[in-house]
Write a structure and sequence with these properties.
Order of helices and strands: HEHEHEEEHEEEEHEEEEEHEEHEHEEH
Number of strands: 19
Helix content: 10-25%
CATH class of the largest domain: Alpha Beta
Low-confidence stretches: none
CATH superfamily of the largest domain: ANL, C-terminal domain
Number of domains: 3
Largest sheet: 6 strands, antiparallel
Distance between the termini: 54 Å
CATH architecture of the largest domain: 2-Layer Sandwich
Length: about 350
C-alpha cells in the first residue's frame, strides 16, 4: 500500500532496538510499524533520553503490542497514537483500535453497536477443555455477553464478496475453518481460532489463542493473562506461559512459565518475591507451578512466541537441559530434582 500510494519508506537491513528511534529521527519518520514482540524489545533497550523522545513519530501501527507494556511504550517514546489491529492472512475480516485515550489501551479493536451489526462479527461461547463451540438445545451457537470470552466468528456471506473466505489448497482444512448453521440455519462463519472479549463500550481484547488456553483443576487458565502478570515482574526479560501435562495426573495441564532473566542471569530474578507477585495478582489455579529458566525464547517469523516444543517437553527433566523449578508448597520455588519429579508423578500424588 505504501509503495502504490507513493509514501516514503525507510527500511533497515537488520532490526536494532538501540538504533530504532535514532533512525526515526535521522529520516524524519512519522509512522512506524511493529509486529509481535518488537515493542517489548524496544522497551528492554537501555533508556536514552537524547534518543527515546527526540523524533517525529506520531503513531505506531501494528499488532501484538502487549497490554502490560502499552502505556509504558507510549510514554517512554512519546508516541501519542497507537493503531493496533487484529487479523490473519487467511481471515475474511479484521478489527482496528485507534488508541488516543487511556480507555483504549490494550484493545485490539472496537465496534460500536452500528458497526457490530454491519460487520456481523460475533463472539461465541467456547468449550476450552474439548476445544469446540458450545451449542444450545436448539443446536445453535451461543453469543457471549460483555466481558465473557468467546471465539471470534466472522460471517461469510455469499452475496458479499468482501466477506469471502478463499480457504486453503486442502479442502478438508478449509472446511475446518468454516462454522455452518452457527446462529441460524444455513449461515456460515469463519472460525478465527482466537478467544476475545468485548466490553460494554465495544472494545475487543485478545484473551488467548485456542489451544493455548488450558484447564487446570477444573479452571480455565489464560496464557495471555498469566504472561501479562509475569512479564511485569522486575528481573524478567521475557516470558512464555503454557500448560504442561504431569504424568499420572488427571487434573489437566499445570501452569508453567519459561522465563528469561534479565541479562540471562538467574541472580537477577528473586524467586521469593516473584512468587509473592504472581500470588497477589493471579487466581491460585493460575500461579505457575513450574518455572523453566531459558537463555532466550524461540519466536516465529512474526516475533510471536513458540509454545509447541515447550509443551511437548513438559517437565521431563531427562530431556530438558534448562534449569527447572517447582512450587513446593510453603517452601516456594525449589529446583525440580529427580526425587521431586518421581514424587509428583507418582499415581495419586496431590499437587
Amino acid at each position: 500500500m505504501m509503495v502504490t500510494g507513493g509514501v516514503t519508506m525507510v527500511i533497515r537491513k537488520k532490526f536494532s532496538a538501540k538504533a530504532f528511534f535514532s533512525d526515526c529521527a535521522k529520516h524524519n519518520v512519522t509512522v512506524v510499524q511493529y509486529i509481535g514482540e518488537l515493542c517489548r524489545y524496544l522497551i528492554s533497550a537501555a533508556p536514552n533520553d537524547l534518543v527515546d523522545r527526540n523524533h517525529k513519530v506520531r503513531i505506531a501501527i501494528g499488532n501484538g503490542l502487549r497490554p502490560e507494556i502499552w502505556a509504558e511504550f507510549q510514554k517512554r517514546f512519546n508516541i501519542p497514537e497507537i493503531g493496533e489491529f487484529y487479523g490473519s492472512t487467511e481471515g475474511n475480516g479484521a478489527l482496528f483500535n485507534h488508541c488516543v485515550s487511556p480507555d483504549a489501551i490494550g484493545a485490539v479493536g472496537r465496534l460500536g453497536s452500528l458497526l457490530k451489526r454491519a460487520t456481523g462479527m460475533k463472539l461465541a461461547r467456547f468449550d476450552v477443555a474439548n476445544e469446540v463451540l458450545v451449542r444450545g438445545k436448539d443446536g445453535f451457537c451461543i453469543e457471549v455477553g460483555d466481558g465473557e470470552p468467546g471465539e471470534l466468528l466472522m460471517p461469510i456471506k455469499p452475496d458479499d464478496p468482501s466477506t469471502k473466505f478463499v480457504g486453503y489448497s486442502d479442502p478438508k482444512a478449509t472446511e475446518k475453518k468454516i462454522v455452518r448453521d452457527a446462529f441460524v440455519k444455513g449461515d456460515m462463519y469463519f472460525s478465527s481460532g482466537d478467544l476475545l472479549s468485548r466490553d460494554a463500550r465495544g472494545f475487543f481484547r485478545f484473551v488467548d489463542r485456542i489451544g493455548d488456553t488450558f484447564r487446570w483443576k477444573g479452571e480455565n487458565c489464560s496464557t495471555t493473562e498469566v504472561t501479562e502478570v509475569v512479564s511485569t515482574f522486575p528481573g524478567v526479560e521475557d516470558a512464555n506461559v503454557y500448560g504442561v501435562l504431569i504424568p499420572n495426573n488427571q487434573d489437566g495441564r499445570a501452569p508453567c512459565v519459561s522465563l528469561c532473566p534479565k541479562d540471562g542471569d538467574l541472580n537477577n530474578l528473586d524467586l521469593k518475591a516473584f512468587l509473592k507477585h504472581v500470588s497477589s495478582n493471579l487466581p491460585s489455579y493460575a500461579v505457575p507451578l513450574f518455572i523453566r529458566i531459558t537463555p532466550q525464547l524461540a519466536v516465529t517469523a512474526t516475533l510471536k512466541h513458540q509454545k509447541g516444543d515447550l509443551r511437548n517437553e513438559g517437565i521431563d527433566i531427562s530431556k530438558i537441559k534448562d534449569k527447572m523449578f517447582y512450587l513446593n508448597g510453603d517452601k516456594g520455588y525449589v529446583p525440580l530434582t529427580p526425587e521431586i519429579y518421581a514424587k509428583i508423578t507418582t499415581p495419586g500424588a496431590r499437587l
